[in-house]
Write a structure and sequence with these properties.
By secondary structure, the chain is mainly beta. It has 2 helices and 11 strands. The N and C termini lie far apart (58 Å).
């Protein structure tokens, strides 16, 4: 919450129970993040806002549709992901991946995302802008192996805005430690969803005679 947000919130509290309180304007979360020492700003992730068709970076094949919008007075980003293939479907599951995330800046001045989906996956990732790339890292978890041993893993997700308005997005899984090996498990490109554009052709049924 920036200084303007905080002032508006305090003003609203002071007027609780009056007609004026309902009319008190509340500024969106824009500008510098001021109440902790951080380089993060609420505009850092604005490039991700919008409706997107998402394709495999290497082949251009359609992978999914994504919608990202601001909620809660412009302080939180909400993502609604719709997978259009079976890449991440569970065995014997009739459903393709559907996921939602909520993303904002936490009290330590870090970008923080909560991801949850219909496979039962729930992750919290934190990070920020690094050399022009938004990088979010999940917490470490211990995963059992078929042979009875275990391995520590975490996920790293990257969003790199491109000069042409697309976004290069990829994910890696890292094993063992901060310096452990990484394996990429998705590599996609976001393109603005344009009605009538590639992979987004609306077919209107012919009028009845």
């Amino acid at each position: 919450m920036n200084k303007n947000c905080l002032m508006a919130f305090v003003a609203a509290l002071a007027l609780t129970g009056t007609a004026e309180a309902a009319e008190e304007p509340f500024d969106a979360c824009t500008g510098a993040f001021t109440f902790v020492e951080s380089d993060a700003t609420f505009e850092d992730f604005d490039f991700w806002l919008g409706e997107w068709q998402v394709v495999a970076t290497e082949t251009g094949e359609l992978r999914g549709y994504d919608k990202i919008r601001m909620i809660h007075d412009g302080c939180v980003m909400k993502q609604e992901w719709h997978q259009m293939d079976d890449l991440f479907s569970l065995n014997a599951s009739p459903n393709r991946l559907r996921g939602t995330s909520l993303t904002g800046i936490d009290a330590k001045g870090r970008w923080r995302q909560l991801w949850t989906d219909n496979t039962g996956t729930n992750m919290i990732l934190t990070g920020g802008i690094e050399d022009g790339v938004m990088v979010l890292r999940s917490e470490w978890i211990t995963v059992p192996r078929p042979n009875g041993s275990t391995v520590d893993v975490r996920n790293l997700w990257y969003w790199h805005p491109q000069p042409d308005g697309t976004i290069h997005n990829w994910g890696e899984q890292q094993r063992d430690s901060e310096t452990g090996p990484k394996q990429k498990y998705f590599d996609i490109t976001y393109r603005r969803a344009i009605k009538g554009g590639p992979a987004f052709n609306l077919r209107v049924p012919p009028a009845a005679e």
